[in-house]
Specification:
single chain; 7-stranded parallel sheet; 14 strands; 327 residues
Length: 327
C-alpha cells in the first residue's frame, strides 16, 4: 500500500510507520520532526500542521491509506479537506474518551458519545474527549464508509512517555522501599502499542470501516500490581491506601505529578473495562499482557528508572505518604 501517516515521529504513529516499512509498504510521514525524525525507510514530508491547509500540499497523488492521530479538530478537518477524496481508506485514531459515561463495565461501540467540541472552541487537555468526538464526526462526513474510527484505550508498551503504565514496574524495580498503592481492584485495560499499530495496518488492508474499540484484555488492578512487583523482583513492603485518604493527601488520580497511575476517580469504574469483542472479531490480535509488562520494564530500565516522570509519585511524596499512612 501507499500509506500516508500524519505524524510518524512519536510512540504510536512512529510504530505504525515502522511496522508498515517492515511489511514492505511505501510509507510517507508528514510531521514537523521537532522531537524526532520518522523511522528509517520512510519518506519525510517536513511540515507543520499548525500552519494550516498548505501543510498538505506536498502530499500529492492517491493514497491507499491515510492515518491520522490528531487531537485538535482544526488540523484534522484541514487534512480531511485536502486528502480524503484521494484516499481509498482513512484511519482516525480516536479514543474511548469519546464515550459520555465511564461508570458501566463492558459497554460496546453503541454507547452514547460526548457532544463534539463546538467549532471555534480551542482544543485543550480538559476537552480531549469532545475534541476526539468532533474529529470522528468530521471524519465520517468527509470519508464516510471508508473511515475506520479506531477507538483506542490506554496504550502501553516500550517507548511510552506518558508513564501511566510503565510507572508501576519501574517503581517496583527502583528500590525495595515501601510502595504506596491504591486499595482498589477494578479492571485495568491496556493495549500494547505494537498490537495497536499492527491492527491499524491490518484493518487498512482489509478495508475495515466504522467505529471499533481497540482495547486490551481486562486485568484486575491487584493482579497487575502483583505481576509488576514479581517481574521487578521487589520484596519490600506494599502499603495499600484507602481512596479517600489518598485524595485527602492531595494524591492525583490517573496521571500527572504526584499521581497514582491507573487509579480512577469515582464514577469511572468502566473506563478501563469496555468491550473489545467487535475489534477482536474483525482481526485485532493481542499478545499476552505479561509480555507487555516484561517488555515495558526492560524499556524502563534502558531509559532509566530514576528519570523524571510525567506521572507517578515522586520519591519524597511517597516517603511522606508511607510515614503518614494509618496502620
Amino acid at each position: 500500500m501507499r500509506i500516508l501517516v500524519l505524524g510518524g515521529t512519536a510512540f504510536l504513529s512512529a510504530e505504525i510507520a515502522r511496522q508498515a516499512v517492515a511489511a514492505g509498504h511505501d510509507v510517507t510521514c508528514l510531521a514537523r520532526g521537532s522531537a524526532a525524525a520518522p523511522p528509517a525507510g520512510t519518506t519525510w514530508l517536513r511540515e507543520d500542521r499548525s500552519l494550516g491547509a498548505d501543510a498538505y500540499a506536498g502530499a500529492e497523488g492517491e493514497w491507499d491509506e491515510v492515518v491520522d492521530v490528531a487531537r485538535d479538530p482544526v488540523p484534522a478537518a484541514e487534512a480531511l479537506d485536502a486528502l480524503a477524496h484521494r484516499a481509498a481508506h482513512w484511519t482516525f485514531v480516536s479514543s474511548c474518551s469519546v464515550y459520555a459515561d465511564a461508570s458501566h463495565a463492558n459497554e460496546t461501540e453503541d454507547a452514547a458519545l460526548l457532544q463534539p467540541l463546538a467549532p471555534g472552541t480551542p482544543s485543550t487537555p480538559e476537552n480531549y474527549g469532545e475534541s476526539k468526538a468532533a474529529i470522528e464526526a468530521a471524519t465520517l462526513k468527509a470519508a464516510g464508509g471508508k473511515a475506520h474510527l479506531c477507538r483506542a484505550g490506554l496504550i502501553g508498551g516500550p517507548g511510552d512517555s506518558s508513564d501511566r503504565y510503565g510507572y508501576w514496574p519501574a517503581r517496583f524495580a527502583r528500590n525495595n522501599k515501601p510502595v504506596v498503592v491504591p486499595a482498589v481492584d477494578y479492571p485495568t485495560q491496556v493495549i500494547d502499542v505494537r498490537d495497536l499499530a499492527a491492527w491499524i495496518l491490518r484493518a487498512a488492508g482489509k478495508g475495515v470501516a466504522g467505529a471499533l474499540n481497540a482495547l486490551g484484555g481486562q486485568v484486575a488492578f491487584g493482579t497487575y500490581l502483583a505481576a509488576a512487583r514479581e517481574t521487578a523482583g521487589h520484596d519490600g513492603e506494599v502499603l495499600p491506601a484507602e481512596e479517600e485518604w489518598l485524595a485527602n493527601q492531595g494524591v492525583n488520580y490517573w496521571a500527572g505529578p504526584d499521581s497514582l497511575p491507573l487509579w480512577l476517580p469515582p464514577g469511572h469504574e468502566g473506563f478501563m473495562a469496555r468491550s473489545n469483542r467487535a475489534a477482536v472479531a474483525a482481526g485485532l490480535q493481542l499478545r499476552p499482557w505479561r509480555e507487555t509488562l516484561q517488555d515495558t520494564l526492560r524499556d524502563e530500565r534502558a531509559r532509566g528508572l530514576d528519570r523524571p516522570r510525567k506521572a507517578g509519585l515522586s520519591p519524597g511524596t511517597e516517603a511522606r505518604l508511607a510515614a503518614r499512612l494509618p496502620s
